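TA notes, week 10

Several of you asked for a full example with nothing omitted. So below is the full record: structure tokens for the whole chain, then the designed sequence directly under it. When grading your own attempts, check the secondary structure regions first.
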């Protein structure tokens, strides 16, 4: 075996995550669930969302939704047809990197409101103009406002269906003056500054949106139990019994409907085990965390989600490059990497590279070779180099998928959900959608948890829930508008 493959295999072993570790992870997760439901400021936030029922597919109406949560900002209008189907019109814009880290909260929210304005001008101009005319004439009416669901996929201390203060930024965002502020009020202020006919009716985490969207569209009678994202970041939301959320008594909040006896909880599982009592840790995980803008936080997310897997891979490849001459010219060959290669840039590797590398089952690894060229500007990588890269990618991706089983299995166990015939789970995000066999590895690890076992395979239905952040937000805006919630400024 060549030295580079041997070393890659040795490193890959460090990423193995055994069945015993999965089981220990599940136990610790269940402990943190209990803690998070009874106290504030815990590692697993277990945030009450004030959404107390899931849709059944008969909901109707036209709603706006916006989504801030990763690389893009999306604005959409959603027409819920009331028969499990909907139509969606959307526009998407990349958030300028400077805006994510060096702007002020005001700049960011004005930028978002401007995108809503141009969306309305393009797709709902008549309504917009009519509103402006009425506003000038002093005859503007509440009922002419669009209700908007605001998908804001960061940890928020939610105080009501459309009120919540930012706890901390994740996924590379860092705008300090927004922390502690009510993000719905910030958005409403910016919207009002531009005179838009829009009321921010609901604050929605993308996982809650995913859960709601899946429940609206999913076949059969079973309401969805859990919504999970495995994309740039990772997180999950699930239906909890109200009487188990004992910290509700301790937190300041507005009124909500208690008739269902349930509430959706946003777990914020990206921060599971921040104290690293059970999470597997390699030297690469340590280095990634130390170089990140939030060391010690989102430790689960840093081992599982798309934004970080590429960076773990980059650190391993750099190591192999230095120690074993990976991608270095052997005598007589001209493999080289230019300085501008994203191999040398923090966060330079996108998860899509991992998905392509993992998917290549050919003997000569042609796709790996061309992906290395496209993504890292590595010219003519050798077959051994390609094999080494694939070995490492496989190990990083498989560990992520097996880790992903931990919060899902633990939530199924802690809620007693496995006693039921069928449990429906909606998932979204680039990893679960595009990383080959992500669900397969996840299910394999779930089977290794004795309380889930083989039976889990039949009981647990996992389905991709596309556009959760749009449709789900619209559904929550619908519930909120019926309750008459208005943002308090
Ligand atoms: C955020 C969550 C979000 C998840 C998926 C995490 O970084 O903290 O609120 O749900 O990413 O987008």
């Amino acid at each position: 075996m060549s030295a580079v493959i041997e070393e890659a295999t040795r490193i890959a072993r460090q990423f193995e995550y055994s069945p015993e570790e999965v089981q220990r992870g599940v136990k610790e997760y269940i402990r943190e669930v209990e803690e998070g439901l009874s106290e504030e400021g815990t590692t697993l936030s277990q945030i009450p969302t004030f959404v107390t029922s899931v849709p059944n597919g008969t909901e109707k109406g036209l709603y706006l939704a916006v989504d801030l949560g990763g690389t893009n900002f999306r604005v959409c209008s959603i027409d819920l047809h009331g028969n499990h189907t909907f139509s969606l019109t959307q526009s998407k814009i990349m958030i300028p990197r400077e805006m994510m880290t060096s702007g002020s909260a005001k700049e960011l929210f004005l930028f978002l409101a401007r995108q809503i304005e141009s969306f309305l001008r393009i797709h709902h101009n008549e309504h917009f103009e009519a509103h402006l005319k009425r506003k000038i004439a002093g005859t503007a009416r509440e009922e002419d406002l669009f209700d908007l669901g605001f998908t804001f996929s960061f940890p928020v201390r939610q105080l009501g269906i459309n009120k919540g203060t930012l706890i901390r930024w994740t996924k590379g965002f860092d705008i300090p003056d927004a922390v502690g502020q009510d993000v719905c009020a910030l958005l409403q202020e910016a919207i009002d500054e531009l005179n838009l006919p829009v009321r921010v009716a609901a604050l929605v985490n993308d996982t809650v949106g995913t859960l709601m969207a899946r429940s609206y569209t999913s076949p059969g009678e079973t309401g969805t139990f859990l919504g999970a994202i495995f994309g740039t970041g990772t997180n999950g939301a699930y239906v909890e019994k109200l009487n188990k959320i004992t910290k509700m008594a301790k937190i300041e909040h507005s009124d909500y409907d208690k008739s269902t006896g349930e509430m959706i909880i946003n777990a914020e599982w990206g921060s599971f085990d921040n104290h690293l009592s059970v999470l597997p840790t390699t030297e690469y995980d340590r280095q990634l965390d130390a170089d990140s803008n939030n060391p010690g936080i989102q430790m689960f997310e840093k081992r599982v989600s798309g934004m970080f897997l590429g960076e773990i891979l980059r650190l391993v490849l750099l190591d192999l490059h230095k120690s074993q001459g990976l991608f270095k010219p052997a005598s007589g060959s001209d493999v080289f990497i230019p300085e501008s290669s994203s191999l040398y840039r923090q966060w330079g590797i996108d998860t899509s590279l991992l998905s392509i590398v993992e998917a290549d089952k050919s003997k000569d690894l042609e796709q790996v070779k061309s992906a290395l060229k496209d993504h890292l500007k590595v010219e003519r990588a050798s077959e051994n180099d390609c094999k080494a890269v694939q070995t490492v990618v496989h190990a990083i991706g498989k560990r992520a998928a097996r880790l992903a089983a931990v919060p899902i299995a633990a939530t199924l166990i802690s809620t007693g959900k496995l006693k039921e015939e069928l449990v429906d789970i909606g998932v979204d995000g680039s990893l679960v959608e595009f990383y080959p066999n992500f669900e397969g590895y996840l299910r394999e690890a779930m089977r290794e948890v004795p309380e889930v076992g083989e039976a889990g395979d039949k009981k647990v239905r996992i389905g991709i829930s596309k556009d959760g952040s749009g449709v789900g937000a619209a559904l929550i805006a619908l519930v909120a508008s019926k309750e008459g919630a208005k943002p308090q400024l």
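The CA atoms of residues 159 and 253 lie 5 Å apart. Use that as a sanity check on your answer.
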